[in-house]
Amino acid sequence: MRFTPTALALSLALLTMSSAGQSQRADSQLDPRSVAMVVKGDALRRAGDFAGATDMYESALAIDPRNRPAFIALGQTAQAQGLPGKAIRMYREALNLEPNDLTALADQGDAMVQKGAVNKAKENLAKIKGLCSKTCPEGNRLAAVIAKGPPPAVLAAQAAPKAPAIGEDAKPQKPE
């Protein structure tokens, strides 16, 4: 009689802990609805509907925020739209989930070159070479992009002289 309340409390705690562990999924297991939305988004992106594809990928991430392929696809969509900064950010999210993802590293390096950050892209290439025991297609693709260099518009913008800040004149004026 004296141990009944303690035994009941202990059994209730044990029952609660064991049922909580059964309802969780493994980290590597993605929600099937999220995976299906990524597939739909891929079809929309191939058809040229970038806005619809972006909506599908973002919906997939709302269902399962651990969906790394959705982050990579969002980055590829942003890159196709000429938004390398957004693409780099999406690839970074994918790399936060899996730091050794070769596709995310290569695509992020490609976006960095597109933005003009060739040295950062070379760092990604070094990571890829460190992860691959032999040559891998991601490394070869990124090396080719780095060798080609940034687009001419980025080179011209980097070479242009700095404009004066708002409110400043180009030439200092003498007081009269």
Keywords:
TPR repeat; TPR-like_helical_dom_sf; elongated; Serine Threonine Protein Phosphatase 5, Tetratricopeptide repeat; mainly alpha; signal; TPR_rpt; 176 residues
Care to describe what's here?
By secondary structure, this protein is mostly helical. It has one domain: Serine Threonine Protein Phosphatase 5, Tetratricopeptide repeat, CATH 1.25.40. It contains nine helices and no strands. It has helices at 4-22, 32-46, 50-63, 68-80, 84-97, 102-115, 118-131, 137-148, 152-159. 28% of the residues are buried. The mean pLDDT is 84. TPR repeats lie at residues 34-67, 68-101.
CATH topology annotation: Serine Threonine Protein Phosphatase 5, Tetratricopeptide repeat
- Provide the gyration radius in Å: 25 Å
Determine the number of helices (DSSP H or I, runs of at least 4 residues): 9
Overall domain count: 1
- The sequence of SSEs as H and E is HHHHHHHHH
Query: Architecture in CATH?
Result: Alpha Horseshoe
The biggest sheet, with number of strands, parallel, antiparallel or mixed sense and barrel status, is: none
Q: Low-confidence segments, ≥5 residues, pLDDT <50?
A: none
Helical fraction: 55-70%
Indicate the mean pLDDT. 84
Structural class: mainly alpha
Straight-line N-to-C gap = 101 Å
CATH superfamily membership: Tetratricopeptide repeat domain
Describe the global form: elongated
The counted number of beta strands is: 0
State the CATH class: Mainly Alpha
- Tell me the strand percentage band: under 5%
Brief write-up:
This protein has 176 residues and is an all-alpha fold. 70% of the residues lie in helices and 0% in strands. The mean pLDDT is 84.
